[in-house]
Description:
277 residues; binds protoporphyrin IX containing FE
Amino acid sequence: MAQEQSGARSGAQSESEQFVSFGEQGAQLTYGSYLSLPTLLDSQHLESDPPAHDELLFITIHQVYELWFKQLLHEAAAARNAMSHGELWWAQHLLQRMHVIERVLVHQVDVLETMTPQDFLEFRQRLAPASGFQSVQFRELEFLSGAKDPAYVQRFKGLTEAEQARLRQRLEEPTLWDAFLDVLRTRGLPAGSDDEIRESLRTAAHDRSQYADIWAVSEALLQHDELAANWRARHVTMVERMIGSKSGTGGSSGSTYLRGRLPLRYYPLLWGLRSEL
Ligand code: HEM
């Protein structure tokens, strides 16, 4: 009994010692300073006055998206570079991480959908002309994935110099698809014209023992494409539930514009392959 008590006491002592010393050695870095929490948590500024209850949710969810977009750009650029250096295992690993993040992006629309159209209307008119349409990182992701469209750079209004430079850079640099075509070529599979690419894709698909890594990366690219399509579909359904057929704060026709983007595919030749097998 005495032993048990002393054991319990020494356990409590070591716990309190740990508590005192944990995270305080040197007192240099803290959780808050490492994560820049004072700045991060002071970055939600409501436009509505008096404050509309749901505007904080609206701002937070967009900020969370932008953080994930930043991470996706980081992973996509590294996956492209890995393909260019012939490190297919690493490219595949990074693409798989992107898929997990992209599923989160699709599912997190559910959170915003807990907002009713009436509650959104409390602050919606304050948002124009701001719109997700102006998300530079979203467009960078499209360009880096393979869907380059310079018209978007012209259509953007109010971009900073730095944002314009980032988009121009993405228009110039190789895409994930360019890097994949390099992979085909270095493995002796022609990739000059669309017909050559189609033929090479068929070859890799029919000889998976020889081209297992190429097949795996091409499927990972297709998955990335499919998840982007899923996000567009999920977003437009939510938009219709929220604003019906009203035009967007960014000045577009709203859901008509968004539905027009649903057929977009980054890698049409990978989709076309299915019909040719
Ligand atoms: C109440 C919620 C939302 C509504 C009603 C809404 C509505 C719209 C509309 C109408 C557009 C078309 C452009 C325009 O005229 O504004 C658009 C585009 C867009 N929105 Fe949203 N949105 C919402 C939430 C979000 C969220 C949470 C994100 C996450 C980042 C987002 C990202 C985008 C993007 C990236 C575009 C451009 C899509 C493209 O060009 O294909 N939206 N949104």
